[in-house]
Amino acid sequence: MGLGNHRRTANGPNKIASASSGPFRAAIGDSAITFDNAQIAAIDALSTPARHGYYLWGDVGRGKSLISETYFAAIPTDDKRRFHFHDFFRDLQAQIIREREPLERSLRRLLGNARAVFFDEFHVHDVADGVYLSATLKSLLDGGILVLATSNYAPEDLMPNPLYHERFRSAINIIRAELDVVHLGKGEDYRLTHAALTRGFGTGTWRTQPPVANDTPSIELNAAGHIIKARSVDGDTAVFTFSDLCTRPLGVAQYLWLAEKLRTVALIDVPDLATVDRDPLARFANLIDVLYDRDIPLHVTAAGEPGRLVEASEPPRDAKRIASRLSALKLA
User: Fold this and answer.
1) Among 239, 214, 236, which residue's Cα sits nearest to residue 228?
2) Where is the signal peptide, in residue numbers (predicted)?
3) Element containing residue 289 per DSSP (H, E)
4) What Cα–Cα distance (Å) separates residue 310 from each residue in 52, 98, 271?
5) Of 43, 49, 97, 162, which residue is the least packed, with the fewest Cβ within 10 Å?
6) Which alpha helices (H) appear in 158-246, and where do they start and end?
7) What is the dihedral sign for C-alpha 73, 77, 78, 83?
8) 330-331 vs 205-208, strand pairing mode
């Protein structure tokens, strides 16, 4: 059935949520993982069938991805879709512009017959995403589609910029009123204390060395109409300077393009992150998010340790998450 064929009901749990509770509990039990008290409380909350879905939020490294991925895998239907938040809204905006069609029709194209949708790493920095999000949530809920979302932020903190917060308030209200908001409480950051990742992004490295002069001529890459400069390209591996990717005004769409075309990225001439200005540092954070989410190995040569990020005068809003993700890189 299509998007419009699962109508929202005023009362009672979502049928897919009800059908998922038992398989989710069984999968958690079969995992043989020892969960802490806050994680157990979150698992209990997701085991209680919701009317429309769940918004699971908490600090980095607390197991949100593990718990939500286990839930998503347990949903007993193949009619389900998982999206990284950035990817979904990039594709949605492109679809609307390309086809010159209403939001509802573009959503149907992206979601197909989905009866459940999982948005991973829910965070809003682009006001356009915030505007589309309200309409998207309304459409999903009206369609009776089960929504599962994870975030590092409480709904009220998703768009902190006071210039745009009021425009995003309707989305916050929808999340609070319609989804079961589940807080995964404070505890151990398992990314920092458990075994390092052994594939993809986790095979990357962070090498600290004094900056050296780099006069390598650049190579221009055409990223869907935007020019990205690289120092070298060898098959699906490319080398960029910090200036190439973070000082220049690039956006998430260009980083997603790189992640789709490349299998390994090297970033050189990275200054001490504590000395970097706000905008380049925010772009660096977006770059790390995209490469981590797409599991692309990253090799960094920098003037300082990765932890210096949080000592910047204006660190990115997601500094804790970015520092946690950078901890997966092996110090060389």
Assistant:
1) 239
2) none
3) helix 278-293
4) 37, 40, 14
5) 162
6) 165-178, 190-193, 242
7) negative
8) parallel
**The tokens of 38 are what?**
């806050």
What distance in Å separates the CA atoms of residue 220 and residue 162, rounded to the nearest whole number?
37
Neighbour order of strands in the sheet with 298-302? 232-234, 237-241, 264-270, 298-302, 205-208, 330-331
pLDDT tens across 276-302, in order? Answer: 999 999 999 999 988 987 889 999 999
Q: State how far the Cα of 147 lies from the Cα of 211, in Å rounded to an integer.
A: 47
Place of tokens 């120092």: 231
Taken in order of first residue, the domains within the chain and their CATH numbers are 3-190 (3.40.50.300), 195-331 (3.40.50)
Residue corresponding to tokens 């005004």: 249
| Residues 129, 158 contacting (CB under 8 angstroms) | no
Where the chain has pLDDT below 70, the residues are: 1-11, 125-131, 160-165, 189-199, 224
The pTM score is 0.71
Tokens standing for residue 70: 């286990």
Strands across the sheet containing 180-184: 80-84, 116-120, 146-151, 53-58, 180-184
Amino acid occupying residue 5? N
The radius of gyration of the chain's CA atoms, rounded to the nearest angstrom, is 21
Residue found by looking up tokens 């300082």 in the block? 304
Q: How far is CA 85 from CA 117, 225, 246, 261, in A?
A: 11, 23, 21, 19
Length, in residues, of the chain: 332
Q: Which residues contact 217 (CB under 8 A, 6 or more apart)?
A: none
Task: Report the number of secondary-structure helices (H) and strands (E) in the chain.
Answer: 12, 13
